[in-house]
Amino acid sequence: MQKLIMLKYGELTTKKGNIGLFLNTLKENIKISLKDIECDIHFDKGRMFIVSPSNDYEKIIKSLQNVFGIHEIAIVYELKANEIEKIGDSLLKLLENYEFKTFKVVTKRSDKKYPLTSMEISAKIGGILLKNIKDIKVDIHNPDIYVNVEIRNNATYLYFETIKGIGGYPVGVLGKGLLMLSGGIDSPVAGYMAIKRGVKLEAVYFESPPHTSVEAKNKVIALAQKLAVYNNNIKLHVINFTEIQEAIYKNIPHEYLITIMRRMMYRISAKIAANINGKILVNGESIGQVASQTLTSMRVINEVVKIPVIRPLACFDKLEIIEIAKKIETYETSILPYEDCCTIFVPEHPVINPDLKLCYEYEKLIPYEDLINKALKEQEIIKIGPEKANDFEDIL
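RE: above sequence
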């Protein structure tokens, strides 16, 4: 019997005519994730298999747990036979390494020409185990061990444990988006959730030196590296927002500072998205969380762009967002006390129901098109990969 890893797709199996695209993309993403490990990957519409001469399956599984598109992972034993007696004999040998008092046989049969049904196979295999292993019994509700048997067209696969994958769609299968990444808790979580739905992300960060620090920038780079674990790599577009922000502060009524600032960020982000063939903008806005995230504010701010704006966290509360941030290990970095340009120059009473006509009038007071073009021309682009995920955390 050959030992290998079997992957289950879950949601991908519903894609029917497009499943080839999804599975080929998943295979390529797995290759990137396992680029330092020698292995062979092959698949059919129901399963994907990974064989490695290194047998370092613990390392492989750790990497696979960060690859979207995988529903379940199992270390399996491949048997080039499907006769009940041979399956039973193989299971008896494998189960010598396990201690258990109760068991349940679970059979899946993709080979529909096989003469027995799944329930009949389970019953026959269960009988073999009961006959040959002392002091065990069947428990279909809460067994000590599940004996999984999958009879496929060319082989039978035996396994006893499964590891949950992170699901979702393979990264990139639905195109590219641009994440508006701040140093806060919300936007990295929004990025993670967009990646999970198959969107390959680049990110934009707005800095405002000397009002924001190098530490604030490095904090965002560290967050981008956390996302790169799932995104394979990530390009971070760093925009110097100082002149635009100072012009807004000096010329526009302070209750509208946040509204106009966000409109400028949207304009810049939309231009970057167009240049990278991005189909959507993604941000961490949550309805009602701050003044710029009331429904009226969102509508007024959104008005400056035609590109769709996706808000994965729109209906999440803060505690739900924090829970995900902790799960993906961005929370501790996000709460480091370095201000970004969204938290400086915050007025005491920002408008929560901005008037679109007033926004038009106020924006005439600053040469924002020239300032935006200058900021785009001078942008810094940093390519960030997951393999150096701790480099910037060391200097925070």
